[in-house]
Predict the 3D structure of the following.
Amino acid sequence: MYHYVILSITYGYTLGVIQIAVKTLGTLARGLRVVEAVAAHQPVGLTELSRLLDEDKSALQRTLATLHDAGWIHPLPDSPPRWEVSTKPLIVAGRAIASSPLPIRARALLGSLRDATGETAHLAIVDDGAIAVVDVAEGKQIVRTALQVGQIHPPEVSAAGRAVCARLTPEARTALTSHPEALLDDAGYAEIRTRGWSVCEGAIAPGSTSIAAAVLNSSGHPIGAVVVSGPDTRLTPDRFAEVGALVRDVAAELGNVR
């Protein structure tokens, strides 16, 4: 497979733009697919991975050995061995998030939002067709909503997904989801855009309610969402407008970062 890299030649001023075809590395792509498969099915053995990925066992075994040598996966003391992802992906992800301008700016704001609402606040980012949690300010109550960094929000039914989809064209919404039949109608997304926040009651976790607002870049395109989540016994309908306004304001403050 080839991808095109665009180079701008500059010497005081732009002289021109060149497109260069660059061949991608199949072995690297295979290794990344293996890491993702191990993470999704761990602990998992060679035979099962070969079936899941439709890969030759001999080639797959070499990939596993390479990933183990590089520290990305490790075997359990089984015979034959089953594999798990190491902590290295977490370390790499943590460094990336820690140096990204949006999560850096969001951290203090999420803490303030948590304190103002009394519930868990988090930031989700739209990346590679997924809406993923990247930072969490967990509520301080004994009974609270717990989220993990890396957790994926379904675009159709989650508050974050609805907030993001409300800022997309119908075509872009459909491209973001594998279940377009579960999307809201145009009127539903128009209502979310008008008030500036969305709500999800129990669709992700029974007894939990979430309120979200989209974070927009300078072009008005959604790059993420700020979300407050809590038990439906505390995050009741009479609080939706109050919490929604707080979430909307934080999302607006984070806008235009990247």
In short: The first strand starts at residue 2 and ends at 10. Residues 26-86 form a domain with the Arc Repressor Mutant, subunit A fold (CATH 1.10.10.10). The chain has two domains: 26-86, 92-254.
